[in-house]
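Before relying on records like the one below, remember that each one covers exactly one chain. Contacts with other chains, cofactors or solvent are not represented anywhere in the record.
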Amino acid sequence: MSVLSQRILTQGKKFHLDESSKKALVYDLVSILLGSENLVSLDRICKKKFNYDFYESLYNSDYLNCIPKESHEWKKILKKNKIKIDKDE
């Protein structure tokens, strides 16, 4: 899914895909929620600068418990992009 997202972002206009960035975002989200632990997808999502509610909703949608919220790499990407998940931070 993450690779497909990357291809859409880089080649979407070439193939006349409407709203290619929205489709790429959906593929990145699905990649994370399916448990691929794709850190590149997380980085692309973080760069879009969504608000706290977006990330809270993402975490609440993790029914399969696949998001590696406590992993060092995950936290590093959030910190690099200045994303705060806990309201207390």
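The chain has a mean pLDDT of 77.
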